[in-house]
Specification:
With about 425 residues, the chain is an alpha/beta fold. The chain contains eleven helices and 20 strands. It has helices at about 10-20, 60-65, 85-95, 100-130, 150-160, 175-180, 185-190, 205-220, 265-270, 330-345, 390-405, and strands at about 1-5, 25-30, 45, 75, 140-145, 170-175, 195-200, 205, 225, 235, 240-245, 250, 255-260, 275-290, 295-300, 305-310, 315-320, 355-365, 370-375, 380-385.
Length: about 425
C-alpha cells in the first residue's frame, strides 16, 4: 500500500519504519529540515516501560495551586483565552482521582511492556543487518528515588496494584539504592533518600540520535522523506483522504498516518475533527560529565526531574508548563532544572557549558496516546498524543498502528487508545 506519514518526529519515523518493514511504500512529510527536531530532540532519555503512570493524580490540583506563585516551580499555568486550554484542564481535573489513575496505569503498562518487546525485536533485526546503530543506549534500569516514608508506602501500593501484570519492580532500601548507584551517596548522607522503586528492565538512550539513525535505515528500505514541507491543505472525497498539499506540491497516497504533535492541532481541525491534547512545555539541560556520572537512569520524585547518562552527557529534564504554544526558553525555569541536577549530583559542579532546551509535549488529559482511525475517514490513521511517553511507547505504538493498517489481529487491545474514549471528552 502507498502510505504517507505526516510528521518526522520519533513517532512518525518509527511508524514509517515499521510500515516499511511490512512492505508498504512510505513517504514522510515534515516542515523541519530533518527528523526528530522538536519534541523528540532533547527529552529526558528514559525508556521507562514501567514508568508510565499518568500525571493526573489525587494530590495534583492542590500541589499545583501551591506552586503558582513560584516562577521556578515544577508546575506553571498561564491562563489563556482559549477554549481548548480550559477544556483540557477540565478533562485533566476530572482524571485526578485514584480509580482513573489506576485504570490508565494498567493500559499504559500494557503498551509499555509491548513497546519494550518491539524495541528489542527491532534492535535484534538491525544488528542482524550488520551495520552500527548507536543512540547512547543503556540497559541499567531506572531507579525512582523516594524521599520519605510516605513515598515508599505509595510505591509498595503501586507494586501491589500491578503485581498480576508482572512488571518486574523492586522496592529498595536507601542503602541498597546507593549500592546500586554510588552517585546517590550525597543525598543519602543528607537524609534525603528513604528508598527507591527500581525497574531493572527499563532502559535509557538519546531519542534524537535514535530517530536520526532509524530515519537513515528507513531510507535504505525505500522510505522517502520530504523535509521542509509545510502542509497547507488536504484533498478528500467520499470519506477518503486523497492527497496532502504543501503549497503547490501535491502528495497522493492510498492511506495516511497523522503523527504530528502539537503542530497538528490546527491541521486536525481543517480535517474536521478535534485532537484532545494540549501543549505541555518541558525543559531539559545537558552537561558534559564523564567521571562520577550515574549509570542508572534516575527519577527524582522530590525534585521532579529525570536524569539519564547519554554517552558522557548527563541529561536532566522536568517542568510542566501549561502556557499555550509558547516555545520561548525561560532561563529561570531552565536553570531550576540544572539546580535540581546539581543538588542531586553535586559533582556536576557549576556546569558552565550546560545546554538548555525546551519543547512542547502533546499531552492528553488521561496520559495515554491516541492510536486509532480518524473519524470521518476510511484511510486516515492517528498515532499521536504521547505526551512525556513518546520515547517509551514509540515502538509499541508503531507496531500497533501497523497491525491496524494491515488489518491484522493486534497483539494488545487497541480500545484503550481510541480517540473517542470517554476520559478525553468531558
Amino acid at each position: 500500500m502507498q502510505l504517507v506519514v505526516l510528521g518526522a518526529g520519533l513517532i512518525g519515523v518509527t511508524s514509517a519504519y515499521r510500515l516499511a518493514e511490512e512492505g508498504h511504500d512510505v513517504t514522510v512529510i515534515d516542515r523541519r529540515e530533518g527528523p526528530g527536531l522538536e519534541t523528540s530532540f532533547a527529552n529526558g532519555g528514559q525508556l521507562g516501560f514501567r514508568e508510565v503512570s499518568p500525571w493526573a493524580a489525587p494530590d495534583v490540583p492542590w500541589t499545583a495551586l501551591k506552586m503558582l506563585r513560584d516562577p521556578a516551580a515544577p508546575f506553571r499555568w498561564k491562563p489563556k483565552a482559549e477554549l481548548e486550554q480550559w477544556r483540557w484542564l477540565l478533562a485533566f481535573l476530572l482524571r485526578c482521582n485514584s480509580p482513573a489513575r489506576a485504570e490508565r496505569e494498567r493500559h499504559n503498562l500494557s503498551l509499555g511492556l509491548f513497546s519494550q518487546k518491539e524495541l528489542e525485536g527491532l534492535l535484534a533485526r538491525l544488528a542482524g543487518e550488520g551495520e552500527s546503530f548507536s543512540f547512547d543506549h543503556k540497559r541499567k534500569g531506572i531507579l525512582r528515588l523516594l524521599p520519605d516514608a510516605k513515598a515508599v508506602k505509595h510505591a509498595r501500593e503501586e507494586m501491589a496494584r500491578l503485581a498480576d501484570m508482572e512488571p518486574g519492580l523492586e522496592v529498595l532500601e536507601a542503602g541498597a539504592c546507593v549500592a546500586l548507584e554510588p552517585a546517590l551517596a550525597s543525598i543519602h548522607q543528607r537524609g534525603e533518600l528513604a528508598g527507591g522503586l527500581y525497574a531493572p528492565g527499563d532502559q535509557s538512550g538519546d531519542a534524537h540520535l535514535f530517530t536520526r539513525a532509524l530515519a537513515k535505515r528507513a531510507e535504505a528500505k525505500g522510505v522517502r522523506f520530504l523535509y521542509g514541507r509545510e502542509i497547507t491543505s488536504f484533498e478528500e472525497s467520499a470519506g477518503r483522504l486523497k492527497a496532502v498539499r504543501c503549497g503547490a506540491e501535491k502528495i497522493e497516497a492510498e492511506a495516511f498516518v497523522f503523527s504530528l504533535g502539537v503542530g497538528g492541532l490546527k491541521l486536525a481541525r481543517k480535517l474536521g475533527f478535534r485532537l484532545p491534547f494540549y501543549p505541555v512545555k518541558g525543559y531539559s539541560v545537558s552537561v558534559e560529565m564523564e567521571e562520577g556520572a550515574p549509570e542508572v537512569s534516575l527519577t527524582d520524585e522530590g525534585r521532579r526531574i529525570v536524569v539519564s547518562n547519554l554517552g558522557g552527557r548527563l541529561r536532566a529534564a522536568g517542568k510542566a508548563e501549561i502556557a499555550g504554544f509558547d516555545t520561548a526558553l525561560d532561563r529561570t525555569r531552565a536553570r531550576a532544572v540544572l539546580q535540581g541536577l546539581q543538588e542531586l549530583i553535586p559533582s556536576v559542579g557549576e556546569a558552565a557549558e550546560a545546554e538548555f532546551w525546551t519543547g512542547l509535549r502533546p499531552m492528553t488529559a488521561d496520559g495515554s496516546p491516541i492510536i486509532d482511525k480518524a473519524p470521518g475517514y476510511e484511510n486516515l490513521y492517528l498515532n499521536t498524543g504521547h505526551g512525556t511517553l513518546g520515547w517509551t511507547l514509540a515502538m509499541g505504538s508503531a507496531s500497533l498502528l501497523a497491525d491496524l493498517i494491515g488489518g491484522k489481529a493486534t497483539q494488545i487491545d487497541p480500545t484503550p487508545f481510541a480517540l473517542k474514549r470517554p476520559s478525553l471528552f468531558p
